[in-house]
Design brief:
Chain lengths: 114, 112
């Protein structure tokens, strides 16, 4: 049971390049989400999904795309990288259902856009 | 939408002292309030959570209190140890929407 796995761990992009951050979970969680973490700003929600085929925007969705074709995978695409997207990105998953449930985070991807 | 404010941003205590971190939320429909601990270079991990039908919850040296009327909740750590040094995040969600909104974090430093 690997939990939530993100790849890559580190990435350097040039302005204007595109790339996909990968996220996979093996816990059969329905809910998956992407956050970015910047100094002094906590974790901000980019996009989330409540199940395969269903995605929605979070607080800071501009410049990012997501899709959820399977329960296990939730990739995050940067369409045209900008220096403002330099950040640490975390994917998380949790069970859905009433009452609130623990979110399990991946190990993070540190992205630098130059 | 929901907005979560967290204070203080940094907190320094001596080993053995207590530490208190406070958060306020704006959406009265929020009903799930977790706390996450993030060690340097690591992923956030849940340490304790509370639901809106409970006023207080304890787990060994950590406790969380919730005041729904005032819309604030707090994390209490007693008998702090150097390994408690980390960044702590509070969060809130309306479980109907399954979206966690995080506070900006508190860096706790416990000195021996």
């Amino acid at each position: 049971n690997a939990g939530v796995t993100q790849t890559p761990k580190f990435q350097v992009l040039k302005t204007g390049q595109s790339m996909t951050l990968q996220c996979a979970q093996d816990m059969n969680h329905e809910y998956m989400s992407w956050y970015r973490q910047d100094p002094g700003m906590g974790l901000r929600l980019i996009h989330y999904s409540v199940g395969a085929g269903i995605t929605d925007q979070g607080e800071v969705p501009n410049g990012y795309n997501v899709s959820r074709s399977t329960t296990e995978d939730f990739p995050l695409r940067l369409l045209s990288a900008a220096p403002s997207q330099t950040s640490v990105y975390f994917c998380a998953s949790s069970m859905t259902g009433g009452g609130g449930t623990e979110a399990f985070f991946g190990q993070g991807t540190r992205l630098t856009v130059v | 939408g929901e907005n979560v404010e967290q204070h203080p941003s940094t907190l320094s205590v001596q080993e053995g002292d207590s530490a208190v971190i406070k958060c306020t939320y704006s959406d009265s429909a929020s009903n799930y309030f977790p706390w996450y601990k993030q060690e340097l270079g690591k992923r956030p991990q849940l340490i304790i959570d509370i639901r809106s039908n409970v006023g207080e919850k304890k787990d060994q040296r950590i406790a969380v209190t919730l005041n729904k009327t005032a819309k604030h909740f707090s994390l209490h750590i007693t008998e702090t140890q150097p390994e408690d040094s980390a960044v702590y995040f509070c969060a809130a969600s309306n479980t109907g929407f399954q979206k966690l909104v995080f506070g900006t974090g508190t860096r706790l430093l416990v000195s021996p």
